[in-house]
């Protein structure tokens, strides 16, 4: 039984899921807006919130922790210089999920 099991598997292995989340959060930082499925967006929200919280700290350890997740140096620089400064006064709730129409190719929500 699957009672009280947190998180989604998204039909992928653990390594695939982790890399997908790293790629999604890197794209979100670079472009500030991405289009993905609802389930992936809900999983991504937690990772993205943690990245912004790290960026608000602005110390070397936080930068190194964020570099472990992000796959691009430009994204790391933007996270700490632009996004961290933008949300300096806000305590959480940095991301918003907007539902769009079903995906054309396969009908994914």
Describe the structure.
The protein has 4 helices and no strands. The chain is mainly α and 109 residues long. The mean pLDDT is 97. It has a domain at 14-86: 50s Ribosomal Protein L17, Chain: A (Alpha-Beta Complex), CATH 3.90.1030.10. The longest helix has 20 residues, at 38-57. The chain starts with 13 loop residues before the first helix and ends in a 23-residue tail after the last helix. It is 57% helix and 0% strand. The chain has helices at 14-31, 38-57, 60-69, 73-86.
CATH architecture of one domain: Alpha-Beta Complex
Order of helical and strand elements: HHHH
Largest sheet geometry: none
Say what the CATH topology of one domain is.
50s Ribosomal Protein L17, Chain: A
Tags for this entry?
109 residues; mainly alpha; 50s Ribosomal Protein L17, Chain: A
Topology of this structure?
Blueprint (H helix, E strand, L loop, with lengths): L13 H18 L6 H20 L2 H10 L3 H14 L23
Helix pairs in contact: 1-2, 1-4, 2-3, 2-4
Could you write a compact summary of the structure shown?
The protein has 109 residues and is mainly α. The chain is built from 4 helices and no strands. 57% of the residues lie in helices and 0% in strands.
């Amino acid at each position: 039984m699957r009672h009280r099991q947190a998180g989604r598997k998204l039909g992928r292995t653990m390594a695939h899921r982790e890399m997908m989340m790293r790629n999604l959060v890197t794209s979100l930082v670079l472009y500030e807006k991405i289009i993905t499925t609802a389930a992936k967006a809900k999983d991504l929200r937690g990772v993205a919130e943690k990245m912004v919280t790290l960026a608000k700290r602005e110390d070397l350890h936080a930068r190194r922790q964020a570099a472990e997740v992000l796959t691009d140096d430009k994204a790391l620089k933007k996270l700490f210089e632009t996004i961290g400064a933008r949300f300096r006064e806000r305590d959480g709730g940095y991301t918003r999920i907007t539902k769009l129409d079903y995906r054309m190719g396969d009908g994914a929500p």
